[in-house]
Design goal:
Elements lengths: L1 E4 L5 H11 L9 H9 L6 E5 L5 E9 L4 E8 L8 H15 L5 E2 L7 H9 L15
Parallel strand pairs: 4-5
Antiparallel strand pairs: 1-2, 2-3, 3-4
Length: 137
């Protein structure tokens, strides 16, 4: 496996992966909208895992605003889950954030998604006493 910064050649593979991993996401989270918005940030924090043939097998987006870091769209090919791809993707993203001076990273998962919560707990994340709120604008 090789972890690289996203390039346009990855689009079809990322789009297919996200459709498999996040089938119910709203349009704003789908590749056609999310990728151009992330690329506009020019922060090199959109990472792609490729297998030896160059096939996209994982992704993560990270963000840092100078105060907190965030992880988004951590996705792994369902056939390769529990093989260490996700762990390596998160570790790589955390290292990139740390290099930028980030000392705290947040993420959100959907309520009731216990397998994903367990994955992040195994990586040292804890459930914090917070209420997540959002608003479309």
């Amino acid at each position: 496996m090789n972890i690289v910064v996203y390039e346009e050649r990855h689009f079809e593979g990322v789009d297919a992966l996200w459709r498999r991993c996040f089938p119910n996401d709203p349009p704003r989270n789908q590749a056609a909208q999310a990728i151009p918005a992330k690329l506009a940030m020019e922060d090199d924090l959109f990472l792609v895992a490729e297998d030896q043939s160059g096939r996209v097998i994982g992704t993560t987006m990270a963000g840092y605003d100078g105060h907190r870091g965030w992880l988004y769209t951590v996705a792994v090919d369902p056939e390769l889950q529990r093989a260490g791809v996700g762990r390596q993707m998160v570790d790589h993203a955390l290292a990139e954030l740390r290099e930028r001076g980030c000392s705290k990273v947040n993420l959100q998962i959907r309520a009731g998604n216990e397998p994903v919560a367990a994955f992040y707990r195994d990586l040292g994340f804890v459930i914090e006493d917070r209420i997540s709120m959002g608003r479309e604008i």
